[in-house]
From TrEMBL:
The keyword Aminoacyl-tRNA synthetase appears for this protein: no
Sequence ranges of the WD repeats: 30-65, 531-572
Protein name: WDR27 protein
Stored InterPro entries: WD40/YVTN_repeat-like_dom_sf, WD40_repeat_dom_sf, WD40_rpt, WDR27
Lineage, top ranks: Eukaryota, Metazoa, Chordata, Craniata, Vertebrata
Amino acid sequence: LACSHHYCAFPVNRNELCIWNTATAQPLFLAGHHCSISALSFGSNINPLLVCSASHERVIVWNLDECTQKVQEGFMPQGIVIGTLLGTVLHVRFSPDDQQVAVCAGSRIYVLSAKDEDILAKLDGHLASVTAAEFCTWQESMLVSVSEDRTFKARKFYLSLCLFYLKVWNYSTSQLIYQSGIITAFPLLSLLIDEDNKQIITGCAGGELWIFSLISDHNYRCVTRINLKKEQEKFCNKMWKSGKETGEGQNAYKVCKTENMRPEGSVETSLPILLIEQCDFLACFHNEENVYSALNTSYFWIGTSTGLLIINLASFEIEAFLSYKDYSDLSICFARSCALTRKAVNGKVLCLITSILEDMIAVLEVNLAALVRSQHSAFLPCGNENSLSVIASPYFFLFLSNNYVRGIECKLNYFAIGMKSTVKDKPLVFHSKIKSSGYTASPRMTMFSPNNNLKKKEVSKLKTICKCKNKEYPLESDPPIKYEKEISLTSKPTPIFCIQYSGNGEMLACGLADKTVLILNSNLTDTSNVFSGHDGAVNSVGWSHDKKWLVSASEDSTLRVWSVYNKEPALILGKEKFSKTVRFAQFYFLDTFILLCSGAEFHLLNFHLDTTKDDLRRYKQQSVCKLVQKFPMSSALEITSLSAVNDFYSYIVLTAGSNRALEVFDLNAGCSTAVIPDVHTRSVHQICQNKGSSFSTQQPEAYNLFMTTAAGDGIKLWDLRTLR
């Protein structure tokens, strides 16, 4: 099958080619093959529009304009035979300029001239049938092919081993540039070269997508692997939850029912990837102001045996899903092959599918915008009124005081902060002699006088400090990518579990496995202070907004707050407060609270730090800390990462759990507001928010961006407003 613009090509009576014009609904029949047509492809250019058809005995190139004119004149249309007796052809593909045709016949690839019968190159190397081949558009004479190579070995039992390879050719010299190792245990069926991102996308019969980089410095490394079954289940679950919240659960239930709810005792079928094609996604939303029009990313179609999917190449997630079973007028439930038009015409895409059970072909007209809108109506934001935002609204203290501060104020009265001493009433006494009040004399108290005895070195030092603080941040400079130096903090090899810069960038705190916390200056040349007292490795450190305090959490299930200028802890919370190890401790809400994780919940603590010394009660802690509330994370055994903004007022707290999910809490509402399942293939070990900078200003929308990372799964950039 093949589609291009408003033309569909498919075989009729096995050896006759039919070109159907969907605009005029008139077919054009082309005869020239004696055996069954096994491969079809349209050319890359529109004028003239070429079609290549291949069978066992010949390969023919047809010029549709000339063939249409011949039929109108009453003559039999004829094509150009460019190859004969090449074998069973499974795939044909035109070059970007329509001058060559790549023909995949058996285990060999023939590069033929599109104008006459001439074999330009023969590419050997595959051990079994070549299933797909694509020309590289930005690099001349480069061809990529996928195949299924199988070997059989006789032992005590019958062993069938399937090896599937990816090859890169330079067909001008017939040189093999690159050959991959074993990719998957299933045959590779489809292939696409993404010109924008310079990547190879290939799909196998087991429902997995593999993406490789074609950038010269990347050495064809694997970018990612996508399991379509898992992504489809995640998409359906997200639709069902969002539809349930908005009252559209029935529509989402119909979409997910056929895919996720198999009857008990039924056999799970595979999900072969029959087609990978570029999707003209953004063109269908060019008149709408929504989240998609602002993204500069690529989308592509995935054609499977049960339906069509749209994949976002930036997030590797499903944007829309169309199942053949959902349409009662369509009698084809399982497709053997499919074809799609690359460009949308009037916002609609033509899809051609054939049945796997009978000789039947169906033409679908898919309204791309309507499909996405129907499935995303529950969780596509139409505006900013219902979306989350990191920056608190102007009436922030009203909501927070209703939930928390009202109870906290009663506790704050217990702390006796800034209480004024009152003078008790005494009896009035009259004396016979009254001393002068001294109002007529000049005051003898020495007032403040500036210190003018500064040395020249001290004056120059102060000037340089002031200059450094007032120096503008170089916004147009490149990011730091050069390795400068390596510094050893301890005499023995000791792991560093956490590091944290202060907000002004003048100090760096390090938590070490030897139970200590180190504070270094910004140029890492001197250790300002060393804090010791934990009985376990320090796994978290956090600076206060005023840079005067440091909070640390340890594996010994304790939390300590240190003054930068004093080695003694100002606050200690012991093991009796927490049942599990304390992790990810930080100040929150402009140093009003402390956030920390313990097990599957995080704690919101209110505190007061008192550094006054009392020799009689020197062992009694003067600082006080009270628990405000605990927030458990749903269906997670342990919180693996936590992040919140302390540099400005924000209600949002982000947590990641051992269940690979990310949960968003709104502390103004006092509950969880959103859950993103399967954020990474493994548990997230760090969440990084845009917490602002004291050196530069940013747009308010930029603070809604955050990143997550997991071991072996790269870094993902998210938008809190769309949770994507």
